[in-house]
Amino acid sequence: MTLADYLQAHGLTAAEFARHIGRSRSTVARWCTGQRHPDAAAMRAIMEETEGAVMPNDFFRTAT
Q1: Is the pTM of this model over 0.85?
Q2: What is the CATH number of the domain that holds 11?
Protein backbone atom coordinates (compact mmCIF):
# COMPACT_ATOMS: atom_id res chain seq x y z
CA MET A 1 0.00 0.00 0.00
CA THR A 2 1.36 3.41 -0.84
CA LEU A 3 1.62 6.06 1.83
CA ALA A 4 -0.82 8.24 -0.11
CA ASP A 5 -3.33 5.37 -0.21
CA TYR A 6 -2.87 4.78 3.51
CA LEU A 7 -3.49 8.42 4.36
CA GLN A 8 -6.61 8.51 2.20
CA ALA A 9 -7.95 5.22 3.62
CA HIS A 10 -7.49 6.50 7.17
CA GLY A 11 -8.71 10.03 6.56
CA LEU A 12 -5.37 11.57 7.48
CA THR A 13 -3.68 14.60 6.00
CA ALA A 14 0.03 14.76 5.34
CA ALA A 15 0.28 17.27 8.20
CA GLU A 16 -1.45 14.94 10.67
CA PHE A 17 0.70 11.98 9.70
CA ALA A 18 3.82 14.15 9.83
CA ARG A 19 3.03 15.13 13.42
CA HIS A 20 2.67 11.45 14.38
CA ILE A 21 6.14 10.58 13.07
CA GLY A 22 7.97 13.83 13.84
CA ARG A 23 8.51 14.99 10.27
CA SER A 24 7.32 18.00 8.29
CA ARG A 25 4.15 18.11 6.21
CA SER A 26 6.12 18.96 3.10
CA THR A 27 8.38 15.95 3.56
CA VAL A 28 5.42 13.58 3.90
CA ALA A 29 3.78 15.20 0.86
CA ARG A 30 6.96 14.61 -1.18
CA TRP A 31 6.99 10.96 -0.14
CA CYS A 32 3.36 10.63 -1.22
CA THR A 33 4.05 12.06 -4.67
CA GLY A 34 7.26 10.09 -5.18
CA GLN A 35 9.44 13.18 -5.31
CA ARG A 36 11.54 11.78 -2.45
CA HIS A 37 12.02 8.52 -0.61
CA PRO A 38 12.15 8.23 3.18
CA ASP A 39 15.48 7.52 4.83
CA ALA A 40 15.91 4.39 6.96
CA ALA A 41 14.77 6.03 10.20
CA ALA A 42 11.70 7.51 8.52
CA MET A 43 10.82 4.17 6.95
CA ARG A 44 10.91 2.55 10.35
CA ALA A 45 8.63 5.27 11.75
CA ILE A 46 6.24 4.84 8.81
CA MET A 47 6.13 1.06 9.26
CA GLU A 48 5.47 1.43 12.98
CA GLU A 49 2.85 4.16 12.59
CA THR A 50 1.00 2.26 9.85
CA GLU A 51 1.38 -1.08 11.67
CA GLY A 52 3.08 -2.56 8.62
CA ALA A 53 0.50 -1.41 6.07
CA VAL A 54 3.18 0.70 4.35
CA MET A 55 6.51 -1.05 3.90
CA PRO A 56 9.82 0.10 2.34
CA ASN A 57 9.14 -1.77 -0.90
CA ASP A 58 5.97 0.25 -1.34
CA PHE A 59 8.11 3.30 -2.12
CA PHE A 60 9.93 1.50 -4.92
CA ARG A 61 7.17 -0.28 -6.78
CA THR A 62 6.95 0.30 -10.48
CA ALA A 63 3.86 0.06 -12.61
CA THR A 64 3.59 -3.12 -14.63
Answers
A1: yes
A2: 1.10.260.40
